[in-house]
Write a structure and sequence with these properties.
Blueprint (H helix, E strand, L loop, with lengths): L9 E5 L5 E4 L8 E10 L2 E9 L11 E4 L5 E6 L2 E5 L2 E5 L12 E9 L6 E4 L2 E2 L3 E4 L22 H5 L3 E3 L2 E3 L9 E4 L12 H10 L4 E7 L9 H17 L3 E7 L10 H15 L5 E4 L9 H18 L5 E3 L2 H4 L10 H5 L7 E8 L5 H10 L5 E7 L11 H14 L3 E4 L15 H4 L10 H10 L9
Parallel strand pairs: 1-3, 15-16, 15-22, 16-17, 17-18, 18-19, 19-20, 20-21, 21-22
Antiparallel strand pairs: 2-12, 3-4, 4-9, 5-8, 5-10, 6-9, 7-8, 10-11, 13-14
Helix pairs in contact: 3-4, 4-5
The structure holds ligand IDC.
The site of ligand IDC has 15 residues, from strand 20.
Catalytic activity: Endohydrolysis of (1->4)-beta-D-glucosidic linkages in cellulose, lichenin and cereal beta-D-glucans
EC number: 3.2.1.4
Family: Belongs to the glycosyl hydrolase 5 (cellulase A) family.
């Protein structure tokens, strides 16, 4: 039932620096809607509106009408339902966010083509009041414009292979030939900033001959949720660093706890809208949309994927997207299932792969058998694995690690090892204190896991061009 409010609803518009913002005055204790530009580029921008219920009882629905000047239009929205009439764009709730509890809020986002800022705002049918004044409020935009692409360096993994594409069950290069990418994952980028410097990336690219650099952006645990703009910028910078060295960058939306990806759906849509718009021109970006779903059904993961993938595709239609699987990306095995549930009900999108993770000291023959079986039907990508136990710590299991890596090589399954960091745990490739020291090349800085991984990764690649 639609509850008519008697309070005056209004919106605050705060836009990027050098723009003009319309400031709508708010009565005290009203439901409000706040608009902000969260990213902008030469031909458009991304907007976000937060509808807040500042009253003492729940509201059961909401509706926001934005008017844009001629030549500017909303081309995509998420976490809301978009309709339009002329220059007016109407946003109503998505299936899950119509009800807003007392003192709670919901945020939806949209992409605008054209640079005109809103000229009008109506919330639940009432005209926003206020004046338009120039402002120089600080921008929260993670980047001013979509990044242009750095030409791939000749002879590097990106220089040779170019834009990747899923072909059958394989990852293929620009020549349509199957390839395997071998590389390293960061630890949580919120924890080890000094491990991802220019010197570190140089060592990965030229000493390790790494094809791939996974950028692990935790969402919780002091990650993205604490500073979306800051983490988005950090990820984009690392994408550039990888590109400059001819390495692929795997953008990992590192959900872990809670294991239900739906908990982070809105954040995922916002984050992937931004990174895909900004990096669309690049050939080196692969999107990993959910690190390790756990405690949820495959149907839930698939539903999440089918909401996030269109957000990416709208900006970056040809990029490969990797989808997490049930049971901490074990293809379901760690929760008593297997890959048959995916084969029977695959994600309804093309150019996608499925994640498999393992920790060699914990996951052995039965997991290897399932990977071999699944690889016959599904494109798999080992976006994370460790040479130790699933805790990320303990001794390297050399025999199991080599059995795994031999299997992945044979099946041409790409992989990233956890972690290129100096965390004091067995899975870290670098000895504690290495990152502060600032030198990363050679074997002197490596742990037992690092020595094993560098020796496996730096061997010659097989990247066919004909
Ligand atoms: C671990 C880190 C550890 C950190 C912990 C919690 O190694 O330092 O305290 O996360 O954030 C995964 C996860 C990955 C884990 C890793 C090892 O994707 O985040 O990292 N692991 O436990 N899945 C299986 C193992």
């Amino acid at each position: 039932m639609k509850r008519r409010t008697t309070t005056i609803l209004a919106a605050v518009l705060a836009v990027a620096a050098t723009s003009t913002a319309a400031l709508f005055a708010l009565p005290a204790s009203a439901e409000t809607a706040a608009f902000r530009v969260s990213n902008s580029w030469s031909t458009g921008y991304q907007g976000e509106i937060t509808v807040s219920n500042q009253s003492s009882s729940a509201i059961s629905t909401w509706k926001v009408d934005l008017t844009l000047p001629a030549g500017t239009s909303v081309t995509q929205a998420w976490s809301s339902t978009l309709t339009s009439s002329g220059n007016t764009y109407t946003f109503t709730p998505a299936a899950w966010n119509g009800t807003i509890a007392a003192n709670a809020s919901t945020t939806f986002g949209f992409i605008v083509t054209g640079t005109g800022r809103p000229t009008g705002c109506v919330v639940n049918g009432q005209t926003c009041t206020g004046t338009t004044t120039p402002t120089s409020s600080p921008t929260t935009s993670p980047s001013a414009s979509p990044s242009t692409s750095t030409p791939p360096v000749n002879g590097t993994p990106v220089g040779i292979n170019g834009q990747l594409k899923v072909c059958g069950t394989k990852l293929c290069n620009q020549y349509g030939k199957p390839i395997q990418l071998r590389g390293m994952s960061t630890h949580g980028i919120q924890w080890f900033p000094s491990c991802y410097t220019d010197a570190a990336l140089d060592a990965l690219a030229t000493d390790w001959n790494s094809d791939l650099f996974r950028v692990s952006m935790y969402v919780q645990e002091q990650g993205y949720e604490t500073n979306p703009a800051g983490f988005t910028t950090r990820v984009n910078n690392l994408v550039d660093e990888a590109e400059q060295r001819g390495m692929y960058a795997l953008i990992d939306f590192h959900i872990l706890t809670p294991g239900d990806p739906m908990y982070n759906l809105d954040r995922a849509k916002t984050f992937f809208a931004q990174v895909s718009a900004r990096n669309a021109a690049k050939k080196n970006v692969i999107y990993e949309i959910a690190n390790e779903p756990n405690g949820v059904s495959w149907a839930t993961i698939k539903n999440y994927a089918e909401q996030v993938i269109p957000v990416i595709r709208a900006n970056d239609p040809d990029a490969v997207v990797v989808v997490g699987t049930r049971g901490w990306s074990s293809l379901g095995v760690s929760e008593g299932g297997n890959s048959s549930e995916i084969v029977a009900n695959p994600v309804n999108a093309s150019n996608v792969m499925y994640t498999f993770h393992f920790y060699a000291a914990s996951h052995k023959d039965n997991y290897r058998a399932e990977v071999e079986r699944a690889a016959a039907s599904l494109p798999l990508f080992v976006t994370e694995f460790g040479t130790v136990t699933y805790t990320g710590d303990g001794a390297v299991d050399t025999a199991s690690s080599n059995a795994w890596l031999d299997l992945l090589d044979r099946l041409q399954i790409s992989y990233a090892n956890w972690t290129f960091s100096d965390a004091g745990e067995g899975s870290a490739a670098l000895k504690p204190g290495t990152c502060a020291g600032g030198s990363f090349a050679g074997t002197g800085v490596l742990t037992e896991s690092g020595l094993l991984m560098r020796s496996r990764i730096r061997t010659a690649d097989n990247f066919p061009t004909t």
